[in-house]
Amino acid sequence: MLSKRDNFIECVSGGAPDRYVNQFEAFSLVLPTINYDMSPMAEHGYFVDDWGVCQKAQGNMGVFPMHDMQHKVIKDIENWKREVVFPKNPDVAAIWEPLQSQAESVDRNEQFVTATCIPGILERCHHLMGLTECMVAFYENPDEMKELIEAITAYELEVAECFVKYVKPDALLHHDDWGTKISSFMAPEMLEEFFLQPYQRVYGYYKSHGVKYIVHHSDSYGESLLPIMVAAGVDVWQGCLRTTNDLPRLVQDWGGKISFMGGIENAEIDKPGWTPDEVVAEVNAAIDFVDSKTYFIPCMTSGMNSSNFDGVYDLVSKTIQERSESDF
Question: What is the model's pTM?
Answer without folding.
Answer: 0.96
